Amino acid sequence: MARMIFIGLLAFFAIACIGIGFGMYYWMKRTMVDGHPIIDQPVNEQTRTDKMGIGELLVYVSLIVIAALLAISVMQEGGSGSAILAKAILLPAVMALFNARKRTGKAMLALVISFMIALFLMMANLLIGLPQKPPVLTINNVPISVTKTTVTDLLNSGFDIYIKRTDNPDVEYKELISSGSYEKYPANRSVMVEKGIRRSNSSIPYPNIIARNGVILGSMQLYGDEAKDMVLEDCKILSFILDEDCIAIAKENSISYKLNGMDLLSVLKKEKLKKKFGEHLWSVPDNKADMTQMFYGLKWGNNSSYLFWNEYYATICFDKEDHMTFFELFGEIARE
Q1: In angstroms, rounded to a whole number, what is the distance separating the alpha carbons of residues 134 and 312?
Q2: What is the number of domains present in the chain?
Q3: How many CA atoms lie within 13 Å of 189's alpha carbon, on the beta-carbon side?
Q4: What is the pLDDT of residue 203?
Q5: Domain end position, chosen among 85, 102, 127
Q6: Average pLDDT value over all residues in the chain
Q7: % residues pLDDT > 90 (the chain)
Q8: Do residues 103 and 44 make contact, with C-beta atoms less than 8 angstroms apart?
Q9: Residue 275: per-residue pLDDT
Q10: pLDDT band for position 142 (50/70/90)?
Q11: Which domain holds residue 102?
Q12: Strand stretches in the chain, DSSP E
């Protein structure tokens, strides 16, 4: 229902824009001034009708680009008058190009139509946004993208998948996959994953383990389909988790983890993450003395909050020496 409301609003706005464009066209065709329709009448006092040279055109285009960048900067700052100020910055540059030559009603109509198209695209971006490219987690040079990478992809890359069968809270972390609590998946399409999305919780730790050569590399949640059960091989990675024990094992075995090329096992300074992730870094700790604040939050989202497109989140917890102690990367599947 929510999707239909958004689509309905955009459809209504598109029809309104088309109606305004056609209405203006027919009005300019039928309205006469001195025996000629307004659409053929000059709308400025400029008398030059020659074509612009490349140099002159570049000057006007440069002015528009600079004005557009300033307007975008003003809009990003926010504030009640930011839209009015952005318009005041951009409009003179556009009108300077428009008035550089003699223009008729046709040029004015084209300008209005271009404005309506830009307004529609801005509205669509405001309501729906654009799909985000999923972040890439690399384990020893093997890329993994949540909501994209499947179990088959992992198996083909040489990883082993272990499925939890029984609980044994007394077993050591290093012995999880050899304790009998987990069964190595034989990749024979014999296991089905229930439909729907299920998040990990503390009562069911490590539901699925990914390993290679007997070394645990992390745990993960899988997603098949919203409406039907899915064979495990065809399921996608929904979330990937590294806890403190897994991180310690990774360091002992020289295993590397990188997020979009950044080494997660290196010293994680705030400036380093800001430079790497920019606007995607939404949570930065203010006080290292407070253990509850010692994490970085990352988000790859859009304006519709996974209503139309997938969204991606990452949490990186760290200690007082700026070394990672916990990591989770997960995706929100687009849905209502």
Answers
A1: 7
A2: 2
A3: 4
A4: 41
A5: 127
A6: 85
A7: 32
A8: yes
A9: 92
A10: very high
A11: 2-127
A12: 32-33, 36-37, 137-139, 142-144, 160-164, 182-184, 192-193, 208-212, 215-223, 230-231, 236-242, 257-259, 262-263, 281-283, 295-300, 311-318, 324-332
Termini Cα distance of the chain? 8
Please report whether residue 180 resides in a domain. Answer: yes
Q: Verify that 83 and 157 share a domain, yes or no.
A: no
Is position 230 within any domain? yes
Provide the pLDDT confidence category of residue 204 given band limits of 50, 70 and 90: very low
Considering the domain architecture, whether residues 123 and 188 belong to the same structural domain is answered as no
Residues 180 and 319 in one domain: yes
On the question of pLDDT at 107 being above 60, the answer is: yes
201 part of a folded domain? yes
pLDDT band at 59 (very low <50, low <70, confident <90, very high): confident
Is the same domain home to 77 and 219? no
Q: Reply yes or no on whether the pLDDT at 315 is more than 80.
A: yes
Q: In what order do the strands lie in the sheet with 160-164?
A: 182-184, 160-164, 208-212, 215-223, 236-242, 324-332, 311-318, 295-300, 281-283
Q: Indicate whether 132 belongs to any domain.
A: no
* CA-CA-CA-CA dihedral for 263, 265, 269, 272, to nearest 10: 0
Judge if 264 and 322 occupy the same domain: yes
pLDDT at 105 (0 to 100): 83
